[in-house]
Known about the structure:
Layout lengths: L11 E3 L2 E3 L4 E2 L14 H12 L4 E8 L18 H14 L3 E7 L7 H4 L4 E2 L13 E2 L2 H21 L3 E6 L4 H6 L14 H19 L4 E7 L10 H14 L3 E5 L20 H8 L8
Parallel strand pairs: 3-4, 4-5, 5-8, 6-7, 8-9, 9-10
Antiparallel strand pairs: 1-2
Amino acid sequence: KFMKFVKLFEPLKVGPVIVPNRIVMPAMGLHFGDTYDFTDRYKAFYRERAHGGVGLLGIGPLAIDLVGSAPGLPGIFEDRQIGPIKELIDELHRDTQAKLGTQLFQMGRSAFGQLTGLQPIAPSPVYSRISRQMPREMTGTDIKEVQEAFAQATRRCREAGFDYVEAVGCTGYLISQFLSPVTNRRTDAYGGSLANRMRFGLEVIGKMKAVAGPDMAIGIRVAGNDFIEGGHGNDEQALFCAEAERAGADAINVTGGWHETNIPQLTANVPPGAYVYLARGIKEKVGIPVF
Length: 291
């Protein structure tokens, strides 16, 4: 029996961008290479999805710096990395109706120093079960440098022609690590109270917004619930998202929890729509679109 998906095919306004429908494909770690380059294999993959009719296509994620990068995922931390991505974006803007977005990530303590040759950095020196390393506690200078890396990556995304750029504030990566009392044990302005722990991520959003220009939308991807003992549930995440909206976010992209949890989120045994309730809890606290 034919079912009419009326709302699904309505346009959606995300900041200055009009998305032709409400189908959003989030960025995902495809690991299509062993360097930080955006290869022809990536282009072929995203070309198929854009021609398939998706409204907002997430290309990436893209690393903002080397120390927080991931093995086999492309980066946008050098100007030379703009070209191959821009080629695809120009093509898809010409040949499809899709709006094109990306995701900027910094893994913090989850980064693999064994591969980058650099000790991972994090809010506090809390051992990572993913990278199996102890990160170095970020100094005030480190904080400013990483925030500037987010800003410069956003500038490169603007030059590449992206319509939408979001920061990774989920999966237990750097912004999540600042947010959570499990991984943030700082006693300065970036640690302690929830307001202080929010500060790093909110400043990142502000810096991204400042360089995005009038035509590009900014968002953040969050964990709807950390699913980590002692971490944040949906209520705390919704409070952060409300502040993110005030800081300049045009959209919130909600996923499950951290990669370190034992609760399944990404595997095929998770029922469709299992975590819609997490998005609902955040949607109730913000006035911007929630994916």
